[in-house]
Design brief:
Blueprint lengths: L20 H24 L15 H27 L1
The chain binds zinc ion.
The site of zinc ion has 7 residues, from loops.
């Protein structure tokens, strides 16, 4: 689960504050770089990750849509794992 502001999601919740703009731009840019690095480390270690953004669960409707997306992704990952087990 990623907070839209702290992890710079491209949505209305990730606007950079007007004060100390340079500080925030740099801080949030470093967070994104760290996220990418950590995502890559997980992938390279064989983990499958599903990123859920804060704005994707802000209402019951959005949460249900996100839940469907997570389930689809889990099924896809399960198939990949099963195919690897057969090889
Ligand atoms: Zn968002």
């Amino acid at each position: 689960m990623r907070g839209c502001f702290w992890h710079s999601h491209n949505c209305k919740f990730s606007r950079i504050p007007k004060t100390n703009k340079l500080f925030w731009t740099d801080k949030l840019r470093r967070n994104v770089i760290r996220d990418k690095k950590n995502d890559r480390l997980l992938r390279n270690s064989g983990w499958k990750s599903i990123i859920v953004w804060e704005c994707q669960v802000t209402s019951k409707k959005r949460f249900e849509k996100t839940k469907g997306r997570i389930l689809k992704r889990m099924i896809k990952y399960k198939k990949i794992i099963e195919e690897k087990a057969v090889e």
